[in-house]
Specification:
mainly alpha, DNA polymerase, domain 1, 3 domains, two-stranded parallel sheet, 14 helices
Length: 292
């Protein structure tokens, strides 16, 4: 009992400390209950706040506009899957255009583009200002009879003039060839020392339709082809292949991967089975390749 009682006996200093603690607790409780700690409402100028939000929104719109992909003039005949998707075309609309082009047909106006692809009026209005057709479409010249072939009979190889020596003025005598296209053909030919290898390279000249190319080759042909060293497709490296027109590093890797898979190409036509191979350019690519 004596031990139990000792727990409740304090010295004078301890009693003073306990009393001070009790007073402190009571004081804090009073402060908590009777003192208002809430802050005053912040006054906001509604007009200025609305003006600030408008400026902020305009800056956001401006930033979005800057980040939009820019559209440059282009020929709609050469729209790819990626280009069509970036323009807002659906897969079906792109497929319709690609199927139309596979028939060696050409779109020559915004109206015809819509007829082929079935795009909406709103999409056509948005992208058609960027359509850029060849000059012979936008500014056709009066039809004239070719001075080289007055009849429907094809002239012989000996009668044709050398495409590697023809002048721009001579080319302009072909129906559908104006000053721009004739100069473009000459510039493309002169990019290569020795000129064209084969008539098929005319397909790489921008703006030449199959019909115009046929009229050119009815009167001109490559008689003095540029000499080249052909690359063995079954021994070529990636660095060898990328020196050829229309072959980039990705395609070169795909060509070699397919070669390893089939244990060597038996014919150059086998390139058509290579992933992402530009089949429409195979005749040009084959000019630079051999099987041995």
């Amino acid at each position: 009992m004596q031990n139990f009682k000792s727990h409740f006996m304090f010295s004078k200093e301890q009693r003073n400390g306990i009393l001070l603690l009790i007073l402190l607790i009571i004081g804090l409780q009073c402060v908590y209950h009777f003192v208002d700690f809430s802050t005053e409402d912040i006054l906001i100028n509604e007009v200025e706040f609305a003006k600030f939000n408008e400026e902020l929104d305009s800056l956001r719109l401006l930033k979005l506009e800057e980040n939009k992909p820019k559209i440059y003039p282009f020929n709609p005949n050469y729209i790819t899957d990626f280009k069509g998707a970036s323009l807002g075309m659906s897969n079906k609309e792109i497929d319709r255009l690609l199927a139309f082009r596979k028939q060696n047909k050409w779109v020559n106006s915004a109206k015809q583009f819509q007829e082929v692809t079935k795009v909406s009026d709103s999409l056509l209005d948005r992208i058609s200002p960027y359509f850029k057709f060849p000059e012979w479409v936008t500014n056709p010249k009066p039809k004239q009879v070719s001075v080289f072939n007055h009849t429907n009979n094809l002239i012989t190889f000996a009668q044709k003039q050398d495409l590697n020596k023809v002048t721009a003025q001579q080319l302009q005598k072909i129906n559908g060839i104006g000053s721009v296209l004739s100069q473009r053909i000459i510039r493309f030919r002169n990019k290569f020392i020795g000129g064209f290898i084969d008539d098929v390279q005319l397909q790489d000249v921008y703006g030449l339709t199959p019909e115009v190319i046929e009229r050119i080759t009815n009167n001109f042909t490559v008689k003095t082809p540029r000499k080249i060293h052909k690359i063995n497709i079954n021994a070529a490296t990636v660095d060898d292949l990328v020196t050829i027109q229309h072959i980039d590093y990705d395609l070169a890797h795909n060509i070699i991967e397919q070669r390893n898979l089939i244990e060597g190409y038996k014919s150059l036509g086998g390139l058509k089975k290579v992933k992402d191979f530009p089949v429409n350019k195979i005749d040009i690519i084959k000019l630079y390749l051999s099987l041995d």
